[in-house]
Amino acid sequence: MKPYRRLASFLVASMLLLSMLLSACSKDSGELTKVRLGEVARTVFYAPQYVALANDYFKEEGLQVELQTTAGGDKTMTALLSNVIDIALVGAETSIYVYQQGSDDVVMNVAQLTQTDGTFLMSREKLDDFSWDDLKGSVFLGQRKGGMPQMAGEFTLKKHGIDPKKDLELIQNVDFANIASAFASGTGQFVQLFEPQASIFEQEGKGYVVASFGVESGKLPYTVYMAKSSYIIKNKDTVQQFTNAIYKAQQWVEQHSAEETAALIMPYFKDADPAIVASAVKRYKEQGSYASDPTLDEQEWNHLLEVLDQAGELKQKVELHSIVDHSFAEQAKADVK
């Protein structure tokens, strides 16, 4: 080989090596990639997400996550579609709605956080021997039409022989963020609430948990991280790093007690009683609400379609691969130990 060719080969090899070194060191360089994350609610139901933030798992992956609460699935999806946020934590059904509308920029699900409904049925009165028939003829403060809490709730009611439209006085005109305060002020005999609000109301004597919609409605890809296809294409490394951080947190929650998890996430629930937060985490852990890894299961996906279809919200069957990208979750499971 001529000298100038050897020199050229050496320079190319050196440049490639330098590029690899710079890439490997990027996480330690202090230059973090900003990710705007919108969560549909602030709830203990999302404990692994707060663990990822508290343990600096995102920073370990080279990310600076800016979290904002965009209350309600419709508001969260609007924020994602209008580029107010980069990644949304919201019910998987919202991505199906966008797909059904024929969007050119498909919203893709990349990592699952929770795998059951997160709401509990609360009664205003203490019922020592609760029966689902107790709901017949009652005033039920429900959730937003087309949202997963309401659809999972209706799925459960029908399973127990209750027609939500005929057997209840169903109230659905209260905004998601105001449902708890509406119940506290006297609206409804029964209500669906997430934790820690359910446990707070129990402590205050404002209501009593009588059943879990998470247990009753079965496994679902209930809350999922999603992003627009255009964002994913341009930011594949960022999405992978984000998914890695979530998987680390999921493993941490799996391996630690409810009390340890509650202590770690308390900065995100500053006004809550630590004992209440621990009780809420324990409820979710015991009923298997937290997904142990980010992969969306096909059986759970088909059950989601069943729930949507029964609620009259499914225009067409949406195959898993159409709006779910498993590659990031699978890579995370391979790389994160």
Q: Structural class, from secondary structure content?
A: alpha/beta
Discrete helix count: 16
CATH architecture of the largest domain: 3-Layer(aba) Sandwich
Strand percentage, roughly? 15-25%
Spatial shape: globular
Largest sheet: 5 strands, mixed
Which stretches of 5+ consecutive residues score pLDDT under 50? 1-5, 7-27
Protein name: NitT/TauT family transport system substrate-binding protein
Main location: periplasm
Signal peptide: 1-24
GO cellular component, one term: periplasmic space
Q: Can you walk me through this structure?
A:
This protein has 2 domains: 30-116 and 220-335, Periplasmic binding protein-like II (D-Maltodextrin-Binding Protein, domain 2); 119-217, Periplasmic binding protein-like II (D-Maltodextrin-Binding Protein, domain 2, 3-Layer(aba) Sandwich), CATH 3.40.190.10. Helix 6 links the parallel strand 6 and strand 7. The radius of gyration is 22 Å and the shape is globular. It is built from 16 helices and 10 strands. With 337 residues, the chain is an alpha/beta fold. It has a 5-stranded mixed sheet, with helices on both faces. The protein has a 5-stranded mixed sheet with strand order 7-6-8-5-9, sandwiched between helices.
Comma- or semicolon-separated keywords:
337 residues; alpha/beta; D-Maltodextrin-Binding Protein, domain 2; 2 domains; 10 strands; 47% helix; 16% strand; disordered N terminus
